[in-house]
Amino acid sequence: MNEQLTSGRRNVLRAGATFGALAYATAASAAQQQNPNAPASKADHHVITQSRILGSGTSGMEVSALGFGVMGMNYNRGPHPDRKAMIALLRQAAERGVTLFDTAQVYGPLINEELAGEALEPFRHKVSITSKFGHRIVGTKYMDGELDSRPATIRRTAEESLKRLRVDAIDMFYQHRADPAVPIEDVAGAVKDLIQQGKVRHFGLCEVGAQTIRRAHAVQAVTAVQSEYHLMWRAQEKEIFPVLAELGIGFVPYSPINRGFLGGSINEYTRFDSGNDNRATLPRFTADAIRANLAIVEVLNAFGRTRGCTSAQVALAWLMAKAPWIVPIPGTTKLAHLEENLRSADFKLSQQEVSELENAVSAIQIVGDRYPAAQQKQVQG
């Protein structure tokens, strides 16, 4: 009983500190938007100090325990925010200890890599920038639904990405989607050549099945697999995680807050109609699905309320508690949300708490598929 009371008092104090910091961060974010290049107040400058290792052996890659997904800063998440503000925010993330930044050729296309390259150029020796290849792009136009992982295309894409990212080597080069027309051994071999040439440092795969991982890893060690993974989508746990653990491969969950949904700011009246927001096409973001799935956000809120966590922090803390080789990459366009995300690394969930949270969420029937049929065909899981 005394232990529970002590824990309760500690959680209340932690809650006050957390939400006070978030309020301060909100004010700082507003000030930054008025003057994007102004430095943040040291009082709200939370630094992430925890690190993790993706991969193992010579393919290991040490990064901050929480990364940053750059995509939504100018692609698939609504109207483009001010470019200068986004550059300032990315630099804030780097100054606060984030060392893993994720982008891709197809985001934009091309403009997301350019943004990451310009913003992170002053930190090029302190951070790792990962990018992706595999979609067919002609000029600056994405050929919707078409894939191209031919070795010649991989080599050309790498050269072009190096220029946009303003780096000498791409820290990790992922195949964005498996190309059924190109054996994975050929893909891995092409990236292996780039690694030997010093143009790429590590090899990654996205949204692939267990056998594809094994076949690729036999040719070139895979450092990390990137897939969607969060409390509403846990399919990788059954077949993928055992393979990653066996082979010593890291895991990078994208959309770890389910495209903002688990943060609690989306409801059935939210509209994704800007022309640059893919949530408008996703079955789980219809009004009916959102209305039904909000029960999950309520579970996260109830769980976090007694622990001093927001629902987004609960979602991220849960991911980091699942395995030491998991590094989520939440994205944001707001300083307050960056602050909120970084503080999630300070919350350590016990296995009992992890089970409690999973049991509560599992009792809720999730409505809607994660992708429409055409996009679902491109993922192996």
Automatic annotation (TrEMBL):
<keyword id="KW-0560">Oxidoreductase</keyword>
<feature type="signal peptide">
    <location>
        <begin position="1"/>
        <end position="30"/>
    </location>
</feature>
<dbReference type="InterPro" id="IPR023210">
    <property type="entry name" value="NADP_OxRdtase_dom"/>
</dbReference>
<feature type="domain" description="NADP-dependent oxidoreductase">
    <location>
        <begin position="66"/>
        <end position="360"/>
    </location>
</feature>
<dbReference type="GO" id="GO:0005737">
    <property type="term" value="C:cytoplasm"/>
</dbReference>
<dbReference type="InterPro" id="IPR050791">
    <property type="entry name" value="Aldo-Keto_reductase"/>
</dbReference>
<dbReference type="InterPro" id="IPR036812">
    <property type="entry name" value="NAD(P)_OxRdtase_dom_sf"/>
</dbReference>
<dbReference type="InterPro" id="IPR006311">
    <property type="entry name" value="TAT_signal"/>
</dbReference>
<dbReference type="GO" id="GO:0016491">
    <property type="term" value="F:oxidoreductase activity"/>
</dbReference>
<keyword id="KW-0732">Signal</keyword>
<dbReference type="Pfam" id="PF00248">
    <property type="entry name" value="Aldo_ket_red"/>
</dbReference>
<protein>
    <submittedName>
        <fullName>Aldo/keto reductase</fullName>
    </submittedName>
</protein>
